[in-house]
């Protein structure tokens, strides 16, 4: 089955290449990815209209860093939050619970799991928890005014279906990227 097939070693080759870099280059790479994630996330505030289509790409730098190294991914995630606190504080409630946590979930899942289904479910579960936390704990209308702020099991199920599909797209995009990266570094 497609979802239970083991993934190839493109991710491992990128991880091995990254581990050969000096610690200084690794930290500079993490800082660069954090600034990219902060830039992408804050695009919604700086570029009204088109920025809403740019901000979902803030998942990619976090995902990439967590895939390469869990400590570096965590540092990049924290640094991105600090950069957003300085540059665009209004995005600070969105990033940690949506795009950032999705990158964290998928990237860490790439680190621990080899099956596509487990990686997708990990990302979808964390994103669902993040969205539900924003909706029901903070009463923040992350999905717009259409979704009620009162807990609903059917709404939670629909959110999980959406996050599963969204996580699946990110897993496929990242696998394609790692496949291209493998041909570039080989």
UniProtKB/TrEMBL annotation:
Protein keywords: Membrane, Transmembrane, Transmembrane helix
Membrane-crossing segments per the record: 27-50, 62-86, 92-112, 117-138, 158-178
Record protein name field: Uncharacterized protein
